[in-house]
Design brief:
Radius of gyration: 21 Å
CATH topology of the largest domain: Rossmann fold
CATH class of the largest domain: Alpha Beta
Helix content: 40-55%
Strand content: 5-15%
Order of helices and strands: EHEHHEHEHEHEEHEHHHHHHH
Oligomer: single chain
Structural class: alpha/beta
Number of strands: 8
Number of domains: 2
CATH superfamily of the largest domain: NAD(P)-binding Rossmann-like Domain
Strand order of the largest sheet: 3-2-1-4-5-6-7-8
Distance between the termini: 37 Å
Bound molecules: nicotinamide-adenine-dinucleotide
Amino acid sequence: MKIEEIKTISVLGAGIMGHGIAQSFLMGGFFVKLFDIQEAIVETAKAHIRRNLELFHQSNFIKRPEIESAMSRLVTTVELRQAVEESDFIVEAAPENLELKQTLFQQVESFCRTDAIITSNTSSLTLKEIGVRVKNKERLVITHWFNPPHIVPTVEVVKGDTTSDETVEIAYQLLTKIKKAPVKINWELPGFLINRIQIAMAREVFDLYEKGVASAADIDRAVKGSFGFRLASIGPLLTADLGGLDLWLKVCENLLPHIQSSIEPSKTLKRLVSQGHTGIKSGKGFYDYNLDFSQKELDEAVQRRDREFLDRLKTLYWYEDTKE
Ligand SMILES: NC(=O)c1ccc[n+]([C@@H]2O[C@H](COP(=O)([O-])OP(=O)(O)OC[C@H]3O[C@@H](n4cnc5c(N)ncnc54)[C@H](O)[C@@H]3O)[C@@H](O)[C@H]2O)c1
């Protein structure tokens, strides 16, 4: 299949990730079929997509008529066959459950065109596992998006053992076409690329908090205002080159023996979870939260976060498109 031939995208699962992924393809001009198991879920997803398109308009990413144009290209359905039978590119964003994904992939292959590409947004499963009942495994590829997917630019395109080079190339080009910043990951390793880096940092951060080196607020403020500030513009390897690799070598030699290297999750993290302190959803995590907020207030808080992210997206990625 050629990239120009791709017109219709299916998104399977309209939850946190699915509705944002659907929005990204709608904004890229594609027809999108959004599938979930209940009518009420796809209706909520549709409302969220409209609300988020409105946010993109308010932040000058799209003109008002583009909201209606995008919505007119969206079809929601609870019939899997209808969702995938005419599709060119299928994105699975169903729950992280192996048996569920295996069955879904098998059903999808039986309904969809023989040349359609089938992708999974899995965070932790392999294509070998998910696609075990799929006959043509060359067209399977992982496209791993980050939350909120309609805003965060990077998508990891992970080549499985059996994925063809052509499948990787088409997924990569398609994501580029909808203004994402895809990255090719050459083989399936646990956590792919980004989650490995993120967990390496989290291990040290949880440990520093546990040792009482600084308060939760100060740790967050320090990271945001230092390498966090830099990282939005330049990556860690360029940072090292700019600082001087001789210096980085010295610092590695001096500090690595002191950095946390345990393969056990942090004791504090385990304790908080065992006490039911699972973060904002329970009212307590590393911070205390006021649990008296309504769903409306929570939605407003998410919208505030998204507005801030959109400002950054504009400055760092979409600056040409949003110039007046
Ligand atoms: N939430 C994140 O931050 C994040 C980030 C990257 C990747 N992922 C991955 O994306 C996938 C979806 O995660 P989510 O957070 O959107 O989950 P979610 O629970 O918000 O959404 C999953 C949706 O799938 C629907 N569903 C249930 N059974 C289905 C089926 N048989 N076919 C199709 N849809 C079905 C559910 O009704 C639900 O609406 C998972 O594989 C997850 O690991 C999540």
